[in-house]
Write a structure and sequence with these properties.
The protein is an alpha/beta fold. It has four helices and nine strands. Bound molecules: 1-O-pyrophosphono-5-O-phosphono-alpha-D-ribofuranose.
Length: 197
């Protein structure tokens, strides 16, 4: 699923909806492109897990939209749990990681699908994956909607990637800036003026 199979979104000509035009520069990935790609990811995940029961672990908060769309296309027996983790950085930079909710389900001997919205520097997943490994699951597979490889500082990769994107500040479809914009149905590029004060 990695490398050549991961699409880079083509330059979108879809206009930004008028309500968001003052803040959002352009649409990077449309809702239709997301929906298509999520269905493809779900098919690949289903094939890889071949009917085994999966514990889906979703990292709060940014995954909520992606997770909801992904799991409704997964015809697998699954249980769902969440880990709350946030990086409290200044502005657009990721900073210190804080765990706000711990896992409740027992994952020992289980197949785990870890879901996140974006793999950026890799600091989050490089903390979360060893923490999960210590609980002795059978295996951990990582699924992210977006991958920004140019920003990586930690050696971490995802098994399933929706889109590989350039180093632009994205919001929408769960992704925020200062907790705003998560409800946009598309992934958009935020106008620099919104975060450069
Ligand atoms: C975002 C995102 C990923 C993480 C990726 O979370 O949801 O978990 O950053 O960045 P990294 O690869 O540089 O670690 P954030 O801490 O902003 O919290 P949120 O999910 O509540 O938006």
């Amino acid at each position: 699923m990695r490398s050549s199979a991961t699409p880079k979104p083509p330059r979108s000509h879809t206009p930004v909806p008028s309500d968001w035009r003052p803040e959002v520069e352009r649409v990077l990935i449309t809702d239709a492109q997301i929906a298509r790609r999520v269905r493809t990811l779900a098919r690949v995940i289903e094939r890889d897990f071949r009917g085994r029961e999966v514990v889906v672990i979703s990292l709060l908060n940014g995954t909520v939209l992606f997770l909801a769309d992904l799991i409704r296309h997964l015809s697998l027996p699954l249980r769902l749990d969440f880990i709350g983790v946030s990086s409290y950085g200044a502005g657009t930079e990721s900073g210190e990681l804080v765990f706000t909710k711990e896992l409740r389900l027992d994952v020992r001997g289980r197949d785990v699908l870890l879901v996140d919205d974006i793999l950026d520097t890799g600091k989050t997943l490089s903390r979360v994956i060893p923490k999960l490994r210590a609980l002795n699951p059978r295996r951990i597979k990582v699924c992210v909607l977006l991958d920004k490889p140019s920003r990586r500082v930690e050696k971490v990769a995802a098994d399933y990637v929706g889109f590989e994107i350039p180093d632009v500040f994205v919001v929408g479809y769960g992704l925020d800036y200062a907790e705003k914009y998560r409800n946009l149905p598309f992934v958009g590029v935020l106008k620099p003026a919104m975060y450069q004060t």
